[in-house]
Structure formats: C-alpha cells, structure tokens
Design goal:
globular, 2 domains, 7 helices, Rossmann fold, seven-stranded mixed sheet, alpha/beta, about 250 residues, 9 strands
Length: about 250
C-alpha cells in the first residue's frame, strides 16, 4: 500500500516553488517557522490530498512495508491515537481488523475503530480494551510523545518514560507472537529498555521511516515475536540461578 507524497496546495504566497508565510502581528518567529515547514512539507500536502488526518500515516505505511506489521493481524491497539492517522491506515489496509484506540485527547470517530478517551494507567483500561477486542492484541502501537521543554536530557527522560509505560502495557496485552512499535528519540532505546525488550521479544529493530523529518530526533523501536507473559518474570541475568532456600 505504498503511497508517495505529491504536491499540493497550502495557504500563504508561492515564491520560487515554495510557499512563503504571510506575516501576522501576533504570530511568533517560531510559529512562523513551524507554519512555513508545514506548508512546504510534501508529506503534509500528500496527507491532505489522500485524506489522511496526519502526515504520520505515512510513517506507519513505511514501517509496515519494511516489517510487515499488519500481516495477518486481526486485533490492534493504538496508544496516543489522536488525531487518528494510524487508525486510518490500519482500517484501510485491514478493513476486518478490530482496532481499539486510546488517547487523553479527543479523536474524531473513524469507521471500524473503537476509541476511548482515557489514561492507559487507569485500573480498568486493560480489561476494557481486551473485552472490546475480544481477546489479546496482536499488535500494540504507540506514537505517544511527551510535550518537549527544549532541554534535551529532560525531553529524553520524559519520552523514554512513556515508552517504558507503553512497553509494560504491551506485555500485559499482547498474545504470543505479537509485535510492539513505539516512538523513541535519537539514539533509539537506551540499554535498560533494550534489555527489557529482549526479555519479551525475539527481534528488536530501530527504524527512522522516510516520512519522519530528517531534522527530527524521532525514531521508532520495532519489537516482534512476543515471547508471552511467562517471560515477564525471567531476567536473562538470572537464568539458571536457583532461588535461595528457606
């Protein structure tokens, strides 16, 4: 289901093949920079032309083409789903797949998607999503990202905290053989997280899909071949070590 970004329209004034942002008295320099980038981003234009709710739809399309994430998948959970670009991709590629989406923000309805506006840490979330799916998930996606403050270390810690939360959730929700995909920052998952991923999954890869801006620090970790929840209590460093006696 490959789709290449094409040209499209945008507000502003065209100059030399690019759209120049018209000045606004109340708009900051950073806002103008962001808006100019949006107006001249081929993925933003292509997403609008194709009816995708966000340019991030192309990221999932590209990740799926590389890793076969949606192959044979019938039950999917999308964490941090708003505005719904990833949900759209799944329902278009796999119309019969059950998709449950969850976000703290509001997401407009999408046919074939059950959306819950709530926190994944709520006590009833896992049972609610599992009951809605009719069983364990085969794929858990997380495009969640913390609000950045501009301090590299702080932003990294906050984002990785979300990844760890998403991983713990995926371990509780996936069926054996399932897959987990989450947004991380430049450098990928740190050593501690990679160790944890290896405890639960057979294959761990890092990827930066072409749709991810070159100047962006985002990457994705793709974990496939979930070993099952029995692996949760097995620390690789402790394998073969007998427990202490009474």
């Amino acid at each position: 289901m490959s789709q290449s970004p094409g040209s499209g329209g945008g507000s502003g004034r065209s100059q030399g093949g690019r759209t120049r942002v018209l000045t606004a008295k109340r708009r900051t320099v950073s806002s103008n920079t962001w808006l100019a980038r949006q107006l001249n981003d081929p993925y933003v234009k292509a997403a609008k032309a194709a009816g995708w709710r966000s340019r991030s739809a192309f990221k999932l399309i590209e990740l799926d083409e590389r890793f076969g994430l949606l192959k044979g998948v019938e039950r999917v959970i999308d964490l941090g789903s708003a505005p719904g670009g990833w949900c759209q991709v799944i329902t278009k590629a796999k119309p019969r797949t059950k998709v449950v989406a969850i976000d703290l923000l509001v997401m407009e309805p999408i046919a074939g998607v059950t959306f819950f506006q709530k926190d994944i840490l709520d006590e009833d979330t896992e049972d609610l999503l599992r009951d809605t799916l009719g069983g364990d998930a085969q794929l858990v996606l997380s495009d969640m990202a913390a609000n950045t403050v501009g301090h590299r270390m702080t932003d990294h810690i906050r984002t990785m905290g979300l990844v760890e939360t998403a991983l713990a959730f995926a371990v509780d929700m996936l069926e054996p053989g399932g897959a987990f995909v989450a947004k991380v920052l430049a450098g990928g998952a740190d050593t501690t997280l990679v160790t944890e991923l290896k405890r639960h999954f057979k294959s761990i890869k890092h990827a930066k899909p072409p749709a991810s801006r070159k100047d962006s620090s985002e990457w994705y970790v793709v974990a496939q071949g979930f070993k099952g929840r029995t692996a949760e209590a097995v620390d690789p460093e402790l394998q073969g070590v007998a427990p202490d006696g009474d």
